[in-house]
Amino acid sequence: MEQASQQRKLTPETISHQEPLSQLAETLIGSEIVKLGGEIREKIKQGEKIYNFTIGDFNPEIFPIPKKLEDEIIEAYRKHFTNYPAAEGNFDLREAIAAFLHQKEGLVYSTSEILVASGGRPLIYAFFRTIANKGDKIIYAVPSWNNNHYTHFVEGVHCEVEASAKNNFMPTAADIAPHIKDAVILDLCSPQNPTGTTFTKEALEAICDMVLEENKRRGAGEKKLYVLYDQMYWQLTYGDIRHYDPVSLRPQMKAYTVYIDAISKCFAATGVRVGWAMGPEAIMSKMKAILSHVGAWAPMAEQKAVARFLLQYDDINNYLQHFKAEISLRLQKIYNGFMRLKAEGLPVDAIAPQAAIYLTVRVTARGMKTTSEQLLEQQKDVTGYLLNEAGIALVPFYAFGASKDSSWYRLSVGACKKEEIDAMIEALAQALRKLK
What phi and psi, each to the nearest 5 degrees, are found at residue 139? Predict the structure, then answer.
């Protein structure tokens, strides 16, 4: 920049836009979902009817948190639990998490192998900071949530593996194998955000065996390959779908696996902000040190409440039974609607619902024309057409790192009113019938 020829008075308002900041600040990519959300809010403000399926969150009027958890939070504040919690998470909460994991998932972790924070994000950030140096190779599948940003934070080498529809957008050992040499992090998520799909037992076993073999190959003093296993949605599986995790399938993976979990999704408690990581004690200790300086603790009262709630197994089971039924009903009804439109010959498809609050859907209208002869030349044009013509807001897979011409989308039902599903499907059908 030729600053001498562009001298002008700088005000506090212009400094932040004119003066260079850190490389991280200047190069961090904004969220496509946030950008889309701004468009949606503006349309709603203008009085338009929008079927908003973009939010990876819950409408608390439709999906409230468990009443028992709510009561425990209120009681904790009444008892004035408002001071700092322990940096690693309160001991009673880590005890409850250990008991809960063993009872529900069969995993055995001590309190020193568990770290608590304000949801999963700080824990993921701390894990990346603990494991990766600048220039280290980090493997993650696309589409996937936020892995590109965390890799950018640590200035790692992005090693993206584009998963395909034939494997329900879950990466396979064969996909990962060509990139595994010298990698330090393999980031996996199941059930997957954005796809709502899961690893099969055989697929995850193959990945675990590959990681174990690679770590066996590496010499003494050489950094190992660690798996970050995000299982935020693991309690939300439907039908015959089962959740599988690395350590249950291969106990030797315990030395190389860090889990990310929370109450956020399974109890519709995204704003309550209590999450935890489980993994080797040495790694948990370093992650704790990082988070101690960041101050990303879960609030004291919420920790006290969750410590009591996680031991109420009957309440949890009753809540999940109703919660899962309501989510599954929405996912299945929308899936059935897409299948009817597909049978009619309209350019849509979908993957049968498996887990989480997401449905993977497809709209292959690129190259078609609207009634006004506008060509839907790129997939972003299709996304805009769905929003403007049908009032349907979906998050394209290209917002999660997939190729720009991917015709697949994430559809989230966390804010979906089931009585509006038929009208939404009809609005989609009418919009697609107009294309030629």
Answer: -100, 130
Handedness of CA 151, 229, 145, 295 (dihedral sign): negative
Predicted confidence at residue 42, as pLDDT, reads 86
The residue whose two tokens read 């904790």 is 76
Whole-number Å distance between alpha carbons of 383 and 185:
33
Q: What would the pLDDT profile of 162-211 be if each residue is shown by its tens digit?
A: 999 999 999 999 999 999 999 999 999 999 999 999 999 999 999 999 99
Dihedrals phi, psi of 114, to nearest 5 degrees: -125, 135
Token readout for 424 is 């939404």
Q: Which residues contact 59 (CB under 8 A, 6 or more apart)?
A: 414, 415
Question: Does the pLDDT value for residue 11 go beyond 50?
Answer: no
Does residue 361 contact residue 394 with C-beta atoms inside 8 Å? yes
Task: Please write down the long-range contacts of 72-75, taking CB distance under 8 Å and 24 or more positions apart.
Answer: 72/304, 72/305, 72/306, 72/308, 72/309, 73/272, 73/301, 73/302, 73/305, 75/305
- Per-residue pLDDT tens over the stretch 385-435: 999 999 999 999 999 989 999 999 999 999 999 999 999 999 999 999 999
- Gyration radius of the chain over CA positions: 23
Average pLDDT over residues 374-392: 94
Half-sphere exposure of 326 (CA within 13 A, CB side): 21
DSSP 170-187: ---HHHHGGG-TTEEEEE
Distance CA 362, CA 209 (A): 33
DSSP 91-122: HHHHHHHHHHHHHHH-----GGGEEEESSHHH
Nearest CA among 15, 252, 288 for reference residue 129? 288
Percent of the chain having pLDDT more than 70?
A: 95
Q: In this predicted structure, what is the pLDDT of residue 383?
A: 94
* Tokens 């899962």 found at: 324
- pTM, whole model, 2 decimals? 0.92
**Beta-carbon contacts of residue 293 (< 8 Å; ≥ 6 apart):** none
